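Incident log entry.

Two folding requests arrived from the same account within the same minute. Monitoring flagged them as a possible duplicate submission, but the sequences differ. Recording both here for audit purposes.

Request one:
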Amino acid sequence: MIYDEVNETITSRRLVLRRFLPSDSSEVARLCNNYNLYRNTMYLPYPYSTQDALTWIESHSLNFREDKLYEFAIIDKNTGILYGAIALSNNQPNRHGEIAYWVGEEYWGKGYATEAAETMLKYAFAEKNYHKVFARHFGSNPSSGRVLKKIGMEKEGVLKEHIVKDDRYEDLVYYGVMNPGSLMG
């Protein structure tokens, strides 16, 4: 992982995580206007419009500036193709945050979510000095759980029928990992 503070980018083997641009809005809308993606996410609306994408992208600067939430586009390092998004929340008093991500369906199964999540985890520990990072997924989406296991997270628990999605109750599965180099201080 290489973090460029000036350009606000994080680079991994195949990916660049960078801030979203308004010009990304049409591609974000195309990727997010997908029922299969919607049903696996907590907050995406469906249908999803370009205006939804613009409104979402416009919220990022304030969140970043106030150190609340770091939201990045997942971009192919060589082609510039936008695959999805990854975010890291910042709970400063507890020195922890949540990783959340989505990848467009046409890019599923290619390891982009795993690589982006692993990169964001390194950023949280090395650059932000978090003590812990956690993530959660719907019980009906075990693929996301596999991503979290691959990056070293352990399943911490399940909140049974905790979320209503499309008039159905969904279990919320929690994963977490501690920073091996974290010290109180």
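Request two (distinct sequence, not a duplicate):
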Amino acid sequence: MSQQPPVSAPAVPDLPAHQPGTPPGPQPGNSFFDFRLLWTGAAAAAASYVAVYMFSLATVVLSLAGIAASQGNPIPALGGAIAAEQAPDAWSQLGQLTAQLVAMAHLGSAGTAVAGVVPFLGSVRGEGHVYAVPLAVLLVSAVGIYLASRLAERRFPSAGRPQLLLQSAVSGAVFALLVNGVAAAAAVRFPAGDGFSIDPISAAGGWPVFVAFLLAAGLSALSRNATYSRRAANGAALLRGQLNLPLAVVAIHVAVFSVIAVPAAWITAAVSAGWAALLSGPLLIGNAAGYGLVAGHLGGLHVLSETTQIFAAQQSRNEDQTIYGFGADAAGTGAAGAAWAALALALVCTVISGLCVLLRRGPVPNADLRSWIPVPAGFLLLGLLLLPLLTVRADFDAPGLAAGQYVLAPAWWSPAVFLGWGLLVEVAARFLAPYLVPVVPARLQRLLRVLPARLQGCPGTAYPGTTHPGPAAGGGVANQPSGESQPGVAGPPATAPAERLLTAKGRKRLLVSAAVVGVVLVLAIGSVVTVNAVKPGPDQPVKDYAQALVDGDARRALEILDPDVPHEERTLLTNEVLGAAANRIDGFSIISTKISGESAQVRAELRQGGRKYEQTFALVKNQPELLDDHWKLEAFPLQHVTVSADAPLAAVAVNGVTVTAGQNEATAFGTNISLPAFPGSYSVGLPDTEKYLSAEDQQVMVSGGALPQAPETARLTVKASDALVAETSRQVAAALAGCEKSTDLEPEGCPFSWFAFGDVRNVKWSVTADPDYGLTRSFDGTWRLSGGKAGEATVSYERSASFSKANPEWEKETDQVQFYVRGNVSVESGKVLVSLSRF
């Protein structure tokens, strides 16, 4: 692009030694110390600490109120390792929690240790640490220090720059002392109990001392020096002007991104998580915006979860991966849409930042390599600062028992990504912003030139389609606030002889070019967003599967899951059985979705009968296409319905559906059936077609969730049905009637008999008293006739009293016989067979 010739700026007259309205006291330029004013540095630090403490206290109160509201408990306790009645509630720990929060905001790590005696293990000791920087608290701390130091410098000016630095050092020392001293004194303490002692939880330490001192001293020096410099022209203005450009651009870039991202993230979290997310927003929203900033700029978030159970030689599954801001590793369709929106917002912020660079610096030669360095360097510094500020780390170590480490932090290469975005901002400032300046309102141009600092880094120049005001009366710069002259730095030019106004043809070309570029960007971004919005995510098959369980549609559930179950064992996986089941899955929700290449894991919460079960589903892509990845749910073991009966059964009934014993071990001694089933409550009994057997129905509950559970067993106690008793009685009566017709003293197949010595004739039987008997099941599956009251039978006959067969002497005799009904009852081909025996 064409370069504008340099334009000289009006000379700025030197200020007299004392201006009207200047506070009395030592004048700038003197090098002596006024030790009486050092208390102002301490007062500024104390005021800053009070401000950040009160803000932190408010965020803690709101967060605890949100947690209490979401739990329905007005007193959220700090329980855990000790008994609930011994643990102090959170409300009583507000002061201590706030002090630790302030220390953690200055890179402190809260830690504690637990020591005690465990049965069979002896003395144990475990330590735990949590590191997380609440960015909102840190921001309030920085703003408070800056404003308090600025006010102190205005009210009590420094006698010279050495005293200014000394007062800043005093502010840093006092602030560091307050941050760490209060945190150490207000450590959260727990009473000892049950043989365990807990060390106080405190975030005070070496790093908070260093960071608090460096932050307070540095910001105090910058704030005081800015006020001091307005009273005395000095050579440091040029250095500040050079540093102002990248810092201002980065600040504007982050501010614009946060102004849009913070409310969106806060509202989304409040809608999805309720009161806890809504009220904890002031505390956590700064960190959420930071993660969104990293994700929107295509950075990566490193997630590490490592837990080792040393005891019993067990080791849990570890996770170490990098989640990118968009694409295959986005956590579900909702998160993918948010990531794409963050990327679009980052592109908009890049254009705005490019405008800021052009308006504050003006056009520069592209061949000047040094001019390409400041802005990317500022973004590189931003990426480096985000590494410690956005890192969340928790670890514990109990030697001999377990150890764990959990980390969420920007990927180590994220600063390089921000460096690339800085280069993109510089490119936008050089090649895109000049064509956008004419359509930017003049007020917005002045705003971008002034904020966030009023000191401009380079002489102003004319831009296409813009004009600059001429010099104001008195040699000042027009439109510049009174008292804000900036010696040593050139302001806007008095005239712009080389300015070039856009012609009508040029405006038309600009509009056409902008329209084409806009359409291309909208189509490109819109196409990508649309494809990802329309394309079903891996959570969709899980939702469909869970909804099929809710609807009792086993056929649909099988189509989605396709479990590794033989067809002959799918008897219970039918609509008839599942549809009749009570206590099915009645609700579900997706907790998280994690995609890794061609596979994914979806965590879901299943609700069943008032209880909640968590289950993780594994999915893989099956011949993915542009608009559909064809996520397929991998098979997983289903819970079983197990039935046992104390008699051999040909079939049982489950929810009214007949299930044959088949290959499920029906033996002469009993029946055992175990078949996979979907979550629900199943009624198990005997089929309605079973005429001669009966058993009381049993209920079997199949729970949802992925935890291995021993299946419940329906134990059927089989009894003779009324029909079998009646048929047996009928056949016994018929058999006894047949025995009465017998002419033998020992009738075959009858329960009674008689013995007579010698020859007999004219034998007649008559049952004079009916017996009582019962049916008992035999070990071989048949039924036995036994027990009860004995019956009586009368036998009359003629017996020969002579020992000569040629000349018999017949005598009539009558005898009484007691007998019991003994025998077997079996059912063959639907027919009852009764056989009586004498024994």
